Amino acid sequence: MTDSKPYDEERIILVAVEDGEFAGFVYAKREQTVPTFQRSYDLHVIEVYVREASRQQGVASELLAAVESREKARECEWASVVVHVDNHTAQSLYEDHGFDVKRKFFAKRLE
Q: pTM of this prediction?
């Protein structure tokens, strides 16, 4: 087994600041797709966090829009995110930004 990456990957962190205070961040990665015919890139949103005092004020939406816009300009073709089935607030955020369910993720505890 090797430690080499099979394709290009770049991590992205954008931070929101309100009145000089940390308000939240988006953490994502830009990955090269598996090159079958032509090289392209996808954006994978790993986490969006907004501090309690800044929630329900559009901070998460602004962060998500910023990372989407930045990566679209850098030729990303798709954006994806994994959301816990019980996190309805996050699901609403992503749906408001045009995300649709494309796959189902299954998990189990190894005992």
A: 0.83
Rg of the chain (C-alpha set): 16
By DSSP bridging, strand 41-50 and strand 21-32 are antiparallel
- Tell me the domains of the chain and their CATH numbers: 9-85 (3.40.630.30)
CB 25 within 8 A of CB 63: yes
- For 29-39, the pLDDT digits (tens) are 999 887 776 77
- Residue 44: other Cβ atoms inside 10 A: 17
Instruction: Beginning with the edge strand found earlier in the chain, give each strand of the sheet holding 9-18 in spatial order.
Output: 9-18, 21-32, 41-50, 76-81
Structure tokens at 47: 């986490």
